[in-house]
Amino acid sequence: MPNRADRPAAQLPRDLVTRGLAAARSAIETEAAAVSALADRLDGVFLDVLTAVAGCEGHLVVTGLGKSGLVGRKIAATLASTGTPATFIHSGDALHGDSGAVTSRDLVLALSASGETAEVCAFARMLAERQIPVIAMTGAEESTLAQLATYTLDTMVLREADPLNLAPTASTTAALVMGDALACALVVLREFTHHDFARFHPSGALGRRLLGGEA
């Protein structure tokens, strides 16, 4: 028997479509509220993180697992493209040798909404033993990861955006936006310019526009 997900929208019951649209609107409103709440958390800890990252002599190594790992990859890419040397190491891979890529000159930004992701916490523990500072980005300030970290950026959300309150939705959006906030602040601190950005983006439509070429 075909699953409801296999039916064309026109064949779905009207009440089901109505509920689906309501869930979509609710998701947007929930995530917007989660993002808005972050602005009030740009406090002294955020400034300490900015200072630490701006003064880092090595790389900001971003790590995470699952959906947080995917967000971490984007944060690292945004930082690298805006003047902050950054790279991503998967937390699982870190426990199988990739932790050797982290040096005493680096900082590590570790993402975990719960702060209890086993591989992320194990990696953070290894780093703490090597006296390498860890910045936790988590929604649980009393979590294992937060306790292991030197700094904790609070990305707590009241609930996820999906109807089941289970899928990483609002929490991953909050982490992504906090990462963008960090990158944007660092653009100002580093006095990163349009010319600097163009040097990092020589290809594609954006690069051509910045370098004055034809689209």
UniProtKB/TrEMBL annotation:
Please name the InterPro entries in this protein's record: GutQ/KpsF_isomerases, SIS_dom, SIS_dom_sf, SIS_Kpsf
Organism of derivation: Kribbella lupini
Describe the location of the SIS domain by residue ranges: 49-192
Protein name, entry field: SIS domain-containing protein
* Lineage of the species this protein comes from: Bacteria, Bacillati, Actinomycetota, Actinomycetes, Propionibacteriales
Source domain of life: Bacteria
Which CDD domains does the UniProt record give? SIS_Kpsf (cd05014)
Supply the Gene3D superfamilies for this chain: Glucose-6-phosphate isomerase like protein, domain 1
